[in-house]
Specification:
Blueprint (H helix, E strand, L loop, with lengths): L8 H9 L1 E2 L2 E2 L2 E6 L2 E7 L4 E2 L2 H7 L5 E8 L5 E9 L3 H9 L8 H9 L4 E7 L3 H15 L14 E7 L8
Parallel strand pairs: 4-9
Antiparallel strand pairs: 1-2, 3-4, 5-8, 6-7, 6-8
Helix pairs in contact: 2-3
Length: 170
C-alpha cells in the first residue's frame, strides 16, 4: 500500500497498475520457529514491450521472471532477475532489449524469440528478503548452478507462489 503524502491523479492511476482487484503484486513473509514462509504474489504475465514496461512496471525493488514462447506455444523461463536500486522498470527494459542485453545467452534468446518474450514481477522492499527468495528459486530451478547466498536469518525457507493466470513454477 502507498504510505505517503496525498496522491494526485497521475500517481493514483500509476499506483493502481500495481494494485488490481485488491491484490498487490508483492512478496510477503511470516516467520515461525526460525523458519521463513514467503508468499510471492506475481503480477499477470505480460508480453514484453518497452511501452508497456514503462507504463506499468514500478521503479521499485523486486524480483522478475522472464520467459520466451517456443514454437509449441510453451513459456520457458530463461531469466530470474532481482532489482533494488534501479528498480524493476529499468531492469526489465534492459533485459528485454537485444540492443542493451550484454549476456550472450540471453541476447541470443531475445534475438531468436523476438516478439515472444514475456515477464512477470513481484515487489519486495527488503534486500534480505529478496536474497532469500532468489536463493529459493535458484536452488529450485537450477540446483546444479552455484546458488546465490541467502540472508542467513532463517533455518529453512519455504515459498508459495500465487499467480492470477495459474502459472506456478515451483
Amino acid at each position: 500500500m502507498y504510505r505517503g503524502p496525498a496522491l494526485d491523479g497521475k500517481l493514483v492511476a500509476r499506483a493502481l497498475l500495481w494494485y488490481r482487484r485488491g491484490v498487490l503484486y508483492e512478496i510477503s513473509k511470516s516467520v515461525k520457529n526460525g523458519d521463513a514462509f514467503y508468499t510471492v504474489r506475481w503480477s499477470p504475465i505480460v508480453k514484453a514491450d518497452k511501452y508497456t514496461i514503462n507504463g506499468s512496471v514500478p521503479a521499485m525493488g523486486g524480483v522478475a521472471e522472464l520467459y520466451y514462447k517456443d514454437d509449441h506455444g510453451k513459456l520457458n523461463l530463461y531469466m530470474l532477475a532481482r532489482s533494488y536500486f534501479g528498480g524493476l522498470r529499468a531492469t526489465l527494459r534492459v533485459a528485454t532489449d537485444p540492443e542493451t542485453e550484454k549476456d550472450e545467452r540471453r541476447h541470443a534468446v531475445l534475438v531468436d524469440h523476438e516478439d515472444q518474450i514475456y515477464y512477470r514481477y513481484a515487489l519486495v522492499e527488503s534486500q534480505d528478503d529478496m536474497s532469500d527468495v532468489m536463493f529459493f528459486f535458484m536452488t529450485t530451478h537450477a540446483p546444479s548452478i552455484s546458488s546465490l547466498p541467502h540472508s542467513g536469518r532463517y533455518e529453512r525457507i519455504f515459498l508459495k507462489e500465487i499467480d492470477s493466470g495459474g502459472l506456478v513454477t515451483i
